[in-house]
Amino acid sequence: MSDQQARPQRPSVAQVRAICQPDAVRMRANSEHWVADVYLRGISPYLTRLLLRTSISANGVTALMILTGMGAAFALLIPGLPGVFLAALLGQMQMLWDCCDGEVARWRQTSSPKGVFLDRVGHYVTEGLIPIALGLRAAGFPDAGWLDTPWPLIGALLAVLVLFNKSLNDMVHVSRAYNDLPKLADTKTVGTPQASGVRTLRSLARFFPFYRAYHSVELTLLALVAGVIDAFVGDLMATRVLVAALAILGVITIVGHLVAILSSSKLRA
């Protein structure tokens, strides 16, 4: 199956896995989310196999990913446990679509800059909307008086922090492209700080990896935990503590991220 013509229209799961999940994908250190490593890459070939029997394009699957991510954010506006459970479920589904769009593209050999761009749009939109929705949820939306609290503003500020932190990685790639430097290898060592003090701080941070909390999966799971606590105690205190903690730790995350990038080899030839 060296070219598209040799690939069957109704592949087996094993064929999908062999073509669409090469080591270059499974061994990525930074681009592969932990839920993909743990279980989604085990599930995705079954869904990809079904998608390949339809006329949907890889970009069409990415569109489903974008809509699902937006749905996860809007689900947080549903009061009580139904909202957080639905958001957590849609957060997982978004990542499953995210696995499948690349697999469809690799099988049909239709990978393109537009696909990468749409994928980035999907993650930016989702991870920008979820903090806003969390802020509204912490304010008690849609109950009366929600606009008289500071939580919508804190949620909006958290969204800015999340998006800025996320954009730092893309800034690295843009900076390298502007200087005609080769694409960074997706390995664990490429982001290792050169300064020993920064390396030590980074190692210590791994015992409390709060900097990993700003992805749609983690945000929706944290919202679920907070929502369950809220339902148990009968108020919104857990969600409010979560939003405040994410905002404070978000500032620390950005500072640490900036220092780590500037002290690593990412911006060097």
Brief synopsis:
With 269 residues, this protein is mainly α. Helices cover 69% and strands 0% of the residues.
Labels describing this entry:
269 residues; Four Helix Bundle (Hemerythrin (Met), subunit A); mainly alpha
Parts with pLDDT < 50 across at least 5 consecutive residues: none
Q: State the share of residues found in helices, binned by percent.
A: 55-70%
Query: Could you state the order of secondary-structure elements as H and E?
Result: HHHHHHHHHH
Q: Would you count the extended β strands for me?
A: 0
User: What's the CATH topology label?
Assistant: Four Helix Bundle (Hemerythrin (Met), subunit A)
Q: Roughly what is the average pLDDT, rounded to an integer? A: 88
CATH superfamily descriptor: CDP-alcohol phosphotransferase transmembrane (TM) domain
**What is the CA-atom radius of gyration, in angstroms?**
20 Å
What count of structural domains?
1
Strand content of the residues, in percent?
under 5%
Largest sheet: none
CATH architecture: Up-down Bundle
